[in-house]
Write a structure and sequence with these properties.
- The complex is a heterodimer of chains A (291) and B (103).
- Chain A is built from 13 helices and 3 strands.
- Helices cover 53% and strands 4% of the residues of chain A.
- The longest helix of chain A has 32 residues.
- By secondary structure, chain B is mostly helical.
- Chain B is built from 5 helices and 1 strand, in the order E-H-H-H-H-H.
- The N and C termini of chain B lie far apart (67 Å).
- Classes of the chains: A mainly alpha (291), B mainly alpha (103).
- At the A-B interface, helix 1, helix 3, helix 4 and strand 3 of A face strand 1, helix 1 and helix 4 of B.
- The structure holds iron/sulfur cluster (SF4) (2 copies).
- The site of one iron/sulfur cluster has 15 residues of chain A, from helix 13.
């Protein structure tokens, strides 16, 4: 007989992550509201852009070459960028799964739709894999345009800013359309923006493979039910891997929560080198989506 | 070394919050824009929408009535109002308003 996972612990894990995401959504909404209420400058409150991790990446080149910051960015952006990159280097793209407010909104939208309308779509690998490269194109375009215009070029199109800015008079039509399309696609495809378009996610992909903490699948106890693969919001085939080193893994730990056999999926930290896969033989493989 | 999932969540939040906290404690956490030093403003791009008439007058080293005149605003305008607020009141954009100072 196989050991069952501790139900209380899986509930606590779900709740902890959702509370964390809710906290950051509320924090960013408060920061934005405070700026709109008090105005900017020394007498007011800093704009949303100053609290954006990607703002750090956008202003970094200007800061290195001139010692100045692009308008609306500040030293706080560089502190945030340092924190996020360190986090991703040590733990993988956990920023996306535990902190990012825009990721949270997408996740909630998808869940609501899955419960109510049930109109969802899981792109096949043939579509999913090429689309993921779009993020790098967008990252390169934004960095190029930011440096060449010496301004936050992307702010007029950024769906994160459009959603949280709380000032309709400053919203651009293109930005509203992009936000609409992004939210609509997030309803149908889980975390669509994160997976295919997010420039910050592209940046994280460069550091996430260095992660010291990864999910290990223990073949000896795995019953090949593929519940982990089905639960993964970014379509990682967890059931076919010994160690999940995919840089797309947002460390949401849903695979661990859904695994019916206790301690079959674990989080392991390797301080010197990535954890070695278990050597035990794998049971016969099933189709990835079979139950 | 095995890490319990809940502990992992704490590590993520602790690490992120810890680095930001370190930045705050060491004085690197700067969020507020500062006023450009007097005499350093070269173009309207150096003026920000959040600047009040008083701050514009300080940075440009011009008396408040002159600033209001250049902005084509009534002399009775409250100098503690920001360019952004005044632009909205005048149904124009902060950029257009700022440009008047350099005409
Ligand atoms: S379900 Fe597992 S593999 Fe998929 S993103 Fe979450 S933690 Fe990573
Ligand atoms: S959920 Fe994944 S790891 Fe767990 S038993 Fe099923 S296939 Fe194996």
């Amino acid at each position: 007989m196989t050991a069952q996972p501790n139900h209380k612990r899986t509930v606590a894990l779900r709740v902890a992550r959702q509370v964390s995401l809710l906290f950051f959504v509320a924090l960013i909404a408060f920061i934005s509201y405070r700026h709109q209420a008090l105005g900017g400058g020394p007498q007011g409150a800093a704009p949303l852009d100053t609290y954006c991790v990607f703002g750090g990446a956008a202003t970094l080149w200007t800061y290195i070459t001139t010692g100045q910051f692009i308008q609306k960015t500040n030293m706080a952006n560089l502190v945030l960028l340092t924190a996020a990159v360190t986090l991703v280097t040590l733990t993988g793209a956990s920023f996306c799964g535990w902190i990012c407010p825009f990721g949270a909104i997408q996740e909630w939208l998808y869940r609501i739709n899955k419960k109510l309308l049930k109109i969802t779509w899981t792109p096949s690998d043939a579509i999913d894999r090429p689309l993921r490269w779009l993020r790098f194109l967008i990252l390169a375009l934004i960095l190029y345009m930011t440096v060449s215009t010496n301004s936050l070029w992307f702010e007029a199109y950024d769906p994160f800013k459009m959603l949280f800015h709380m000032n309709f008079s400053e919203m651009t039509l293109t930005g509203i359309v992009i936000l609409g399309v992004t939210l609509l696609s997030a309803l149908i495809i889980e975390r669509a923006w994160c997976r295919y378009l997010c420039p910050l996610g592209a940046l994280f992909t460069l550091f996430a493979p260095l992660s010291r903490i990864n999910i290990t699948r223990h073949r000896a106890s795995c019953i090949n039910c593929h519940a982990c693969t089905k639960a993964c919001p970014v379509q990682i085939d967890v059931a076919q891997q010994d160690v999940v080193r995919d840089s797309q893994c947002i460390k949401c730990l849903r695979c661990i929560i859904h695994c019916p056999v206790a301690d079959t999926l674990t989080l392991d930290a390797a301080l010197t080198s990535p954890p070695a896969p278990p050597q035990t033989p794998s049971p016969s493989k099933q189709h990835p989506l079979s139950s | 070394m095995r890490i319990k999932p809940l502990l992992f969540g704490l590590i993520v939040l602790g690490l992120f919050g810890g680095i930001i906290g370190g930045g705050m404690a060491s004085g690197y956490w700067v969020t507020k824009q500062s006023l450009p030093s007097a005499g350093t403003v070269q173009s309207s791009a150096d003026l920000k929408g959040w600047m009040t008439i008083t701050q514009v007058s300080e940075t440009l080293q011009l008396p408040i009535p002159t600033v209001l005149e250049k902005l084509r605003l009534p002399a009775s305008t409250d100098p503690s109002k920001s360019l952004k607020t005044l632009a909205t009141e005048q149904q124009t954009t902060p950029d257009e308003l700022k440009a008047r100072l350099f005409e």
